[in-house]
Predict the 3D structure of the following.
Amino acid sequence: MPRKVHYGVDYDDSYDVYEDYDDDYADNYDYEVEQSASETMAKLEADKSGVWRCPICTYDNEDSMSACDICGVLRNPLIKAIAKMDIGGVGGICKDSGASVMAKSLFASLPRDMAKRTVLFEVQNDVSSSDDNLNLYNLGNIRGTFQEFNSAFSSQNHKVNIAPFKFDAPSPDDLVSNGLRSVKSKSKGNILSKKETKIQVESELVAKGPVSSSVPVTRERRNGVSENDSASGSGNKSEVFDTRMKAETSSSKSRKEEITDEGKTSTSQYNPEKWMIPDKVDAGLSQLNLAIVGHVDSGKSTLSGRLLHLLGRISQKEMHKYEKEAKQQGKGSFAFAWAMDESAEERERGITMTVGVAFFTSRKYQIVLLDSPGHRDFVPNMISGATQADAAIIVVDASLGSFEAGIDATGGQTKEHAQLVRSFGVEQVIVVVNKMDVVEYSKERFDTVKEKLRTFLRSCGFKDSSILWVPASAMENQNLVANASDVRLSWFKGPCLLDAIDSLQLPTRDYSKPLLMPICDVVKLPSQGQVSACGKLESGAIRTGFKVMVMPSREIATVRSLEKDSQVCNIARAGDNVTVNLQGIEGNRVTAGGMICHPDYPVQISNYLELKILVLDISTPIVIGSQFEFHIHHAKEAARVVRILSLLDPKTGKTAKKSPRCLLAKQNAIVEVALQAPVCVEEYNNCRALGRVFLRASGRTIALGIVTQIIKREE
């Protein structure tokens, strides 16, 4: 504790410290302090002629200002009076006099004659005060009856219309209050609808009836602005009000139609340019994307390589090279397959691991061949590549045991590939019963395979009229590009494989929609400062020099060049499988699974979706919290089930049960899933290619579905 120190004075406990002080000492002391402070402030004011300092923010204001220009504090009246006596003039009067609209309307049109009667004013509380430094005369309140004052200066021929009180310039308090009022109105919304407001205003006008034009009608609108409308113009005002409300309603509707979530513009407003629509007279062949799928070791790559060799896409020199290399490794029968399997690992293992892309030309189409892997470990690669397909070739092995293994429910890839191809939107398939030479081109074996597989394809949704059956032998070149030469296959009277491809119908292309191209693969060339993105144009068109947006990075890039079928082209349209060379963008901003789209019509990005799914043959039920791989176009993300909304009737599609606990095999349901990272996605009704999803777990496809809703969650 601090020490108590006696400074040579003895204190008496009975002594009252307040006895020697007068009662009014404190009051006089306060007054002297205030007076000395006022004198100091007055001297500081006098030192700076033409300005006065605000006691709050210490800002030097002009002498003509009665309030601080920064904080709005009123000037001290005492200082104003001293400065007025010392300086003289009209100091302390605001340069914006603040004369009200009421005063202007009162005196602007006064008659020349004097008042007819006297107005009695009452003088109150006139006080004369004198101090050491001040000689002031404090006037009391001079007050008269305002109505008497108005009637004194009015006559029968001249009426004075008194406007409501309002300052010329809004004060700081008015600005603050107006701002708060606008914020409240925005947060609460409109209390009355526009129709109710219109009826209310019209009813007020009708209730007031015909009034003299000299009597103003003050109407306060919903936006806070008041205006004076006379009754004579009430009809016009009502029409103007009605027209304005209709215009606001129509503009708000148009804005809602044009702008959707996250500021995305509606595609209904998109108008394609003339060059985007292909000319009917164009002699070029249409491009058809053909996926080759099937069980592992069914001969898909060999069939593709043989077709390319027969059609001249692989030279005899290259074919001789493949045969020599295959024999050196003891795999002479893989020579044609090596035309598609180019990596060392694929050749060593003898299986296709990635989707091989090749081009050849038939009599009717320019074919893009997509050779898909058949091993179950590489089904994700098959999904990523074959999702571009317009039609498919399902290759099955006719040899005993191999076909049965392909359609086995547990590990057969023929069934899974057929289900995936159908979920890609493919409706036309060619079933090639390969390796017929192993079964001596037996018609009975062909019929057995055809009967078993047809039943399953029907269950997947394929129509009998959209399925073509072709017996063939890729190793012996039977029934590929020409009719079979072996007499053992003379019983088949149908078309060869190449003719069957030409009989396929081209699907409808979306030329009139904005550009949309999922990115399948990315090739970076840092030395040339460009990035190449490969993929199929799902809608729209693109050409050299075109500005595009790369999603999900939202970067703008310029198309430097285009390549189609390994040849440079200027324009590519929907359905074309192209390589787009971009410039003006970093290589790490372009990724596989992304999207190239129109800058004004970006694709949506989300990680929370509502799906309508079909559960396949599964042994473990799907429950809330189940985790799986989520595949959509060329993107793959980890996901989990958040909600199971309802079970659907497979026949009618209507809700059969709400909020089930689990999902079993062969059930249709509506679920909500959360992804680990956002993906480029669109609802199935808006874009089918970006609305198809595949759910996989434990190396198997457990469900197929479509995106029914993109859910926006606030963080």
In short: Residues 630 and 695 are 5 Å apart (CA to CA). The first strand starts at residue 51 and ends at 53.
